[in-house]
Model the fold of this input.
Amino acid sequence: MINSLNPEVDSKLEFIRNTLTETGAIALRLRGTDWFAWATAGSSHTVLLTAETGVAELLITAETAWVLTDEIEAQRLQDEELPANFQIYIY
Done:
């Protein structure tokens, strides 16, 4: 995992959380490769470059930002792609 928190990601998570509060939503789930890259400040969750979705999704709540993925991809994402702003949840 990238050892430090990413300030760009902090800003985006704050924006999402403010939107959740304003709309009364509990969480936001992001699946597409474009949304994943935006929310993680450039990380990739794709294995097949032509796919619209990758091997992980984001679930953002008022308290936590999760990366939802399978056990096979969790360690690679943690080691190579994700800033420390996110926690991994293996399903």
The beta strands are 27-32, 53-61, 65-69, 87-90.
